[in-house]
Amino acid sequence: MQRQYLSIDIGGTEIKSALIDHSGNIFEKNHTLTPRQKEEFFTKIFEIITPVLEKITAICVSVPGVVNSATGKVKFTGALGFMGTFNFASYIEARTHCPVYVGNDANCATLAEMWLGNLNGVHNGAVITLGTSVGGGIVINDQLLHGPHFQAGELSAMIINHDVTDPHYSTVGATTSAVKMIETIADVCGIADKEDGRRVFKEINPHNQVAWSLFESFCRRVAILILNLQTVMDLDRVLIGGGISAQHILVDEIKKQFRLLQQSDYRLRDDVTMPEIMAAKFGNEANLLGALYGLLLTIE
C-alpha cells in the first residue's frame, strides 16, 4: 500500500479534506463549514487531523492568502482575514510532529494541473480560476511562478480600465466575477435562486437575448485578461477553472471573443499569438491534489 497524505483545502465557506496516496488517488473525502473565529478555526483543523494522524506521512494545506510556501508563513486574506499573519505550517508541525506544506489556493490549483492535469508537459501556461473573484497561477519554463513577494498570479488586482477613478471598480476582480455574472442574469431573467448557475445556463445556452448579452460581455472581459497576459508572457496554454468552467459554452465563447479582439486591431492580430484555451481538468479536487504535489516537490 502506498503512503498516504492528509490534504486540506481551506476555503472561505468550506474546508475540504482527503487522504491521498503518492499517485494522486483520493480516499476518505470530507468537508465541513469554515469557522469564523480564530480559536474555533484551530479547533476545527485539529479535529480533521487528529483521527488520521497515525496513518499519514505528511500534511498539506491549501489556503487563500499570500503564502511563502518555503517557510509556511501565511497572510490570510478575504473571508479568512481574521486569522492574520503567522507561520501556519510551523503551528501545525509543532502540534503533530508531522511534515507540513502550505500553499496558496490558486497556486495549488495550478500545481494539480501541472501534475496530473491539462498543464502536464506544458512549459509555459496559466490557470485562471473564475469565481467570486479571479484567481491565477502562472507557469514559466516548467516552474510555478511565485515572485519575490509570493504574489505572482494575483490577477484580481490588475487594473484594466484607467478611465475609472476608483480602482475598486476597475480591477479584474471587480469586473470579472463569475458569481456576479450569474447573479445578474438570474435577476434579470426572474430566477428565484440567484446562485443557481445551472438554471442560469439554461437561459444562456439557447441565446436568450438578455442573458446572452451579459454572458458575452463577461467572456469578452476574460478574453481581454488572457490577451493582456499573453502580451507579457507569451504562453502556450491557458486553462479556465472554477465551477463555471464545466459549461462547454464558456471556453468556446472566450475563444471567440479573443479572435474578435484580434480582428479589431492589426496590432493584436500581428503581435499577439492566441494561446490554446481550454477548461482545467480538475474541479473541486484541484486544491487538494495541488497541495499534495507541492508537498511532494518539497520533500523529494
UniProtKB/TrEMBL annotation:
Organism domain of life: Bacteria
Lineage: Bacteria, Bacillati, Bacillota, Bacilli, Lactobacillales
Family statement: Belongs to the ROK (NagC/XylR) family.
CDD domains: ASKHA_NBD_ROK-like (cd24152)
A matching Pfam family: ROK
Xref: InterPro entries: ATPase_NBD (IPR043129), ROK (IPR000600)
Name under which the protein is recorded: ROK family protein
